[in-house]
Amino acid sequence: MVMEQVLSRYTQAFNTAWTHVLERYRMCDHKLSQACYYALSGEGKRVRPLLTLACAEAVGGTLEQALPAAVAVEMVHTYSLVHDDLPDFDDDDFRRGRATVHRQFDVPTAILVGDGLLTDAWSLLAKPQKWGLWADVATDVRLSWIENLSRAAGSSGMVLGQDLDMYWTGVADCPESMLWKITQHKTADLFAAACTLGAQSTGEMDIAVKPFEEFGRSLGVAFQLRDDGLDDRAGLGKSAGKDRRQEKNSARRFFTPSQLAVKITEFREKALKSIPLACQTDALLALVRLVECRTH
């Protein structure tokens, strides 16, 4: 089946839920809410929330059960992009094919947008109904969602990855081991959380969820390696050649294109070996292919 056809049901379900969140910000007339709406309404790939939904169904759950987790994952991801684009970090003018939040509004507003979206994600997970998401999810599942997503986003996850990325930018003798550490925390931790939250949506015990965490982590590394390889390509919705100009220690500095392709395949295979064959649904396989073969 064509990849888009396989994922269409997941995309439609997510977009419907996402509309509820967007409307909440759009209806407020103050500047911060309008800036949050702007950040969230960009056309992203939605790989992470679709993974959440696909992992939920892979273990026998429903899309409705997993939608609050999928929406929260995308809110956290969007916050990270808003902050990543700021002048003191990557200083980018474009994101998702249009002006970054700090260019469209201003730097203080962009900082507050990131702060607001990150904090609102926890509110949504705690009380999905208040955000228009009527999911029948037990309290202990919602607490597990909050625990896992906050760990992936926090000072031992994405924030640490961003710190390491900034520290080693422009350092010529950065070791290859640091590339993998940055990649794991800045990108793979959130992929792992996205898959974990999906598998947890049915109330599965941690021991049953662990394979999906490993699946997401390996797939997240493959995603970032592919992203590094596309740095010079125009039409990605962000500034082409940004990593090269800023002397980022991305995978392009350590591997040739052919070596990079081999590494991506290795992590794809590692991801698939992490979960039982019975859980390798058409949707998950389509998302794996999307990560491995994407051109934008």
Instruction: Return the structural class.
Output: mainly alpha
Q: What is the C-level CATH assignment?
A: Mainly Alpha
Low-confidence stretches: none
Mean pLDDT: 92
Provide an overview of this structure.
With 296 residues, the chain is mostly helical. Helices cover 68% and strands 1% of the residues. It has helices spanning 3-26, 31-40, 47-58, 63-84, 101-104, 107-126, 139-153, 158-168, 176-200, 206-229, 242-245, 257-274, 282-293; strands at 94-95, 98-99. Strands 1-2 form a two-stranded antiparallel ribbon.
Topology readout:
Elements: H1 3-26, H2 31-40, H3 47-58, H4 63-84, E1 94-95, E2 98-99, H5 101-104, H6 107-126, H7 139-153, H8 158-168, H9 176-200, H10 206-229, H11 242-245, H12 257-274, H13 282-293
Antiparallel strand pairs: 1-2
Could you give a short description of this structure?
By secondary structure, the protein is mainly alpha-helical. It is built from 13 helices and two strands.
